[in-house]
Amino acid sequence: MSEKKERPLVSPKTQVLFDKKAKVEAGGGPERRAAQKASGKLGARERIDLLVDDDSFEEIDALVETRATDFGLDKKYMAADGVITGFARINGRPVCLYAQDFTVVGGSLGLAHAMKICKAMDMAITAGVPVIGLCDSGGARIQEGVESLGGYAEIFYRNVDASGYVPQISAILGPCAGGAVYSPALTDFIFMVEGTSHMFITGPDVVKAATGETCDFETLGGADTHSRLSGVCHFTAGSEHDCFRQIRELLDFLPQNCREKPKSVMPSDDSKRESDVLERVGELESKKAYKIHEVIWEIADGHRFFEVQKGFARNLVAGFIRLDGESIGVVANNPQVLSGALDIDASEKGARFINFCDSFNIPLLTLVDVPGYWPGLEQEHGGIIRRGAKLLYSFCRATVPKVTVVLRKAYGGAYDVMSSKHIRGDMNFAWPCAEIAVMGPQGAVNILYKAELKAARDPEKLRSELVQQYVDKFASPFQAAKRGYIDEIIEARKTRPKVIRAFNFLKGKKVERLPKKHGNIPL
Length: 523
Hints:
The chain contains 21 helices and 17 strands. The chain has helices at residues 12-25, 30-38, 44-51, 111-127, 146-162, 182-186, 204-211, 217-221, 223-230, 240-252, 276-282, 292-299, 344-359, 377-382, 384-397, 412-417, 441-448, 450-455, 459-475, 477-482, 495-505; strands at 58-60, 83-90, 93-100, 131-135, 168-172, 175-177, 189-193, 198-200, 235-237, 306-308, 316-323, 326-333, 364-370, 402-411, 427-430, 435-437, 488-489.
């Protein structure tokens, strides 16, 4: 039986350090930690341990305390002032992070709490690494008054300063209300956990008092609401463990900062692989719906696709794949929803994703099957002209390598918008079945040959003949290819190898923009 190792003797001053650290690590105490667990949530330190690589977290500012004394704050001990900050590694890559501790005065934000977060963000900017916030807070610390509001504003300023410079990720792991929602909203990606995450400007009681509407936390600001209806949330998870797994997966597609490119991985798939599935999709009738994910899976390495905002604006699909080991952003129309037409939500979803990819040197693959913009009073009154222009603006502004494949339909202004050659798509391919025209053949014939159809003995037969003539003369991809708007018409089965070769060729792309402060996107 081996002898038990005794702890080496330490100096009194070192013992003081040990005692202070133990007090900080105890958080809000055993009762509050038990309450946190009973509510289905992990502790702040548990979350950090699960997210980062083993034994990689280095805490900073553990001994920071509030200077506020009003309302009895000078008589309370608030471990780490309710937030744990530091740096660590995720999949071997350095990151900065903070985790709010709900067991310490509800994770409320006072000035010292805010400045700890600000220091972590400043470190991330200086070191050029991603910053991750694990949010679980009751909001502003009322006892500190305007200082807590000032603390929030300091964080907001840094969110904007870091935007497009280092990736910013927020995980909502509890309540997030009032001013606290704006920092996550300014970050690049928001994760929420079903059942325990909530985001809202005003809570259910205030909503009822102000408007008379009755709602609960989940309906007002739960994960389903924000992932499906508002689009605030980019990823949902069934548990906190699943949330941290997804964050680690997302980071694998991203660079450390805007000066770097995403890390390549060893190719896991044959770069020359052809697809019978794509061939069958290309043979479908033009009005036949199909799941665009099947096309993306067939093109991607290992048939893997990491989708962003899966439940929101499902007529446009966006996310990350790898092609020959390289990180690629995908934007694709989805014929299963609204026939793949563009509407307000889809335009804003696509614009946001494109802006992110362009900021961080992630090439863009655009898969086009779009009948146009979705019509109707709701869309027009909701501002489809202004808000739909965001997608156009983002594609035009993006300078990363852009490869476009017209799968079937590309009609009207939506053809232009979806990374066409005219707005500087670098390589534009089309399948032989593609239709590229001002509008669909049926609608065009009804307008162009209205008198002839009205006078015809057999209008349906004439319409059928005229539709085919229109397709052959105006909607065929060969017409666009004749004018150089399509670089190559490719066999559907060979889409993956063609796209990979195009991106490999474009790796050295450089674009000089007009010297100016910045453009004015139609917000």
